[in-house]
Write a structure and sequence with these properties.
By secondary structure, this protein is of the alpha/beta class. 30% of the residues lie in helices and 28% in strands. The protein has 10 helices and 15 strands. It has helices spanning 42-49, 119-141, 159-170, 185-191, 200-203, 223-231, 255-259, 274-287, 290-296, 305-313; strands at 2-10, 13-21, 31-39, 65-73, 83-87, 102-105, 110-112, 150-153, 174-179, 193-198, 214-219, 233-241, 263-266, 297-301, 320-324. Strands 3, 4, 5, 6, 7, 14 and 15 form a 7-stranded mixed β-sheet that branches. The longest helix has 23 residues, at 119-141. The chain is globular and about 60 Å long. It starts with a strand and ends with a strand.
């Protein structure tokens, strides 16, 4: 038996509760993992609260990422005792996820624990930091250099935004943070933001083209915020879009793309080839330090994840929530 958060939906409604489950109930997969840490991401918040259509089958154990130790494996890639991590692949949506003490998953979804990082450190980074790293890699592959100018990060006080600021600052870029929580300005500057601007300056309908300001953008908000960010990107600049906190609509014209030649990169962290996942985590192991991880993250218990999910969706949580599933 093991503890897990379990989501059910029946004629009485949508329910999320703590549960004691039998290992035999776990879905099919080549690798059985003893989960050490998971996290509470925006998707997990939507799943736990039922505020978004995230869960595709019931019952479901949420948790889109985890780190742990292999208990059993029928795959030659892993053996008992191996330390592994998982991000994405529909785990916590269509396949039981990491907000539990055990998980059974496909071997191809796992990668080895990055060298130089503990299980807890990787989950302090989690899918949010991993997604931010994929955004940074897309901008670097675009050819972006620190001397290009200011980088805008939207949704700055959230998990992805916090890591995006830290990573870009560590790489020598000048970062401007956009947030709806100006009370977090000191925190954002501590991460490396040179300036903090109010979310409202970007979140309302804007012009097809605005004055050129941003060399590049990392956006986790979508909707009018993404459209306005694109409208102010410099010629031949780039935008990495990875979220939809404001909405999944994109009310933009073709003007910035045709008249300024900007590029929009869509970042899907859910399904990424193994070599690229490993490379992203290698970069993270080099760029993240203990001070930043401690600043960005806080630890909670498995049971605390349920009430905290509502606060996360309401935008009341700063940075990252690490879930110790064994307390």
């Amino acid at each position: 038996m093991f503890k897990a958060i379990l989501i059910n939906k029946d004629e009485t409604g949508y329910h999320t509760d703590m549960a004691e489950l039998n290992e035999a109930a776990l879905p099919a997969g080549e690798v059985l993992v003893k989960v050490l840490y998971s996290t509470l991401n925006y998707k997990d918040g939507l799943a736990i609260t039922g505020k978004g259509p995230i869960v595709r089958s019931f019952p479901m154990v949420p948790g889109i990422d985890f780190a742990g130790e292999v208990l059993e494996s029928s795959s030659p890639e892993y053996a008992p005792g191996d330390q592994v991590i998982l991000n994405g692949w529909g785990v916590g949506e269509g396949h039981w996820g990491g907000l539990a003490q055990k998980a059974r998953v496909k071997a191809e979804w796992l990668i080895p624990l990055p060298k130089g990082m503990t299980a807890k450190q990787t989950l302090a980074v989690g899918t949010a930091g991993y997604t931010a790293m994929l955004c940074v890699m897309a901008l670097q592959n675009h050819g972006l250099q620190p001397n290009a100018g200011e980088i805008l990060v939207t949704g700055a006080a959230g998990g992805v935004g916090s890591f995006a600021i830290s990573l870009m600052h560590k790489l020598g870029f000048t970062v401007v943070a956009s947030s709806g929580r100006l009370a977090e300005s000191a925190y954002l500057r501590q991460l490396g933001a040179s300036e903090v601007i109010a979310r409202e300056s970007l979140s309302a309908p804007g012009k097809p083209l605005a004055k050129e300001r941003w060399a590049a953008v990392i956006d986790s908000v979508g909707s009018h915020t993404l459209a306005n960010a694109c409208a102010a990107v410099k010629s031949n600049g780039a935008v990495a879009a990875c979220g939809l906190a404001q909405g999944m609509d994109f009310p933009v014209t073709v003007a910035p793309f045709i008249l300024r030649g900007i590029t929009l990169y869509g970042i899907n962290s859910v399904a990424v080839e193994k070599a690229k996942r490993i490379l992203a985590w290698e970069h993270l192991s080099q760029l993240c330090d203990q001070t930043i991880l401690a600043t960005i993250s806080q630890e909670i218990s498995l049971a605390e994840a349920i009430p905290m999910a509502a606060d996360l969706i309401a935008g009341k949580i700063r940075g990252r929530l690490i879930v110790d599933v064994n307390r």
